[in-house]
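User: structure tokens for this one?
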Amino acid sequence: MRLIKNRKIVDAIEAYDQNIERLKVINEVEIEMFLYNERLSAKLFDIKSLLKEKHSSKSPSLMSDRSALIHINLSYINEYINDLLNYSYVVKGNTFLFSETKQKALDLIQLIKKEYYL
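Assistant:
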């Protein structure tokens, strides 16, 4: 960074780099939350009976209301809903940060092009 004399460009590069580091962290959080949600949904929904019915039926279109075949373990429902809400919040934050980082990158490119006549 010492080779770049323009302080405005140095600041823009550092701001962009900070956003990239935040994206890496929040992406890891998002992945962990997704995996936790997957494990929780396996405890919440018991679809074995649905799969059994599907495989035993010659024509799945003739099956009755299939939603009635999915058993829900109600002891996990509040935890599952809370987890989905938290996951939604993290995804929205990640999406906002991604958009902000993209804009910082575009601004940085324009700044470098202007400064170095590219």
